[in-house]
Amino acid sequence: MAAKPNSGKNRIVYQEFGTPDNSSAMERAVPDLPPEKQDIRIQATRSGRKGKTVTVMTGFQHNTKTLSKLLKKLKSQCGCGGTIKDDTLEIQGDHKQKLLETLTKLGYKAKISGG
Q1: With left for phi above 0 and alpha for psi between -120 and 50, is residue 24 left, alpha or beta?
Q2: What is the CATH number of domain 32-112?
Q3: How open is the CA angle 93-60-67, to the nearest 5 degrees?
Q4: Residue 57 DSSP label
Q5: What angle (nearest 5°) sits at the alpha carbon of residue 33, between those of residues 45 and 76?
Q6: pLDDT digits (tens, 9 = 90+) for 73-101
Q7: What does DSSP say about strands 88-92 and 54-58: parallel, antiparallel, or unpaired?
Q8: How far is the C-alpha of 80 from the C-alpha of 92, rounded, in Å?
Q9: How far apart, in whole angstroms, are the C-alpha atoms of residue 58 and residue 39?
Q10: How do residues 8-45 score in pLDDT, each as one tens digit?
């Protein structure tokens, strides 16, 4: 018994408005607040990273495009790599003081948390 050509998961039975792709409607709306209205926490951690130290910055309320531009600027200031994971920025190595100075120059309210 051969499969029917119209039997698929993308088969639309009825559609009144819009397009069949709902990805733009399903995206989470993130407010892009100005830097002075954001409270950023900077913490160095090694948990779950096989002993490697990573500086984690949390509390950003930006969209992904703005976060990637900020991450690029911070990575160039520290001279190391980094990534974005779940609206947190991770910079390789222990750069708490340098990141605190850079973020305050950019207008963020940043604090070092943890030990």
Answers
A1: alpha
A2: 3.30.780.10
A3: 75
A4: E
A5: 50
A6: 999 999 999 999 988 999 999 999 999 99
A7: antiparallel
A8: 6
A9: 8
A10: 566 777 777 766 666 666 666 667 888 888 899 999 99
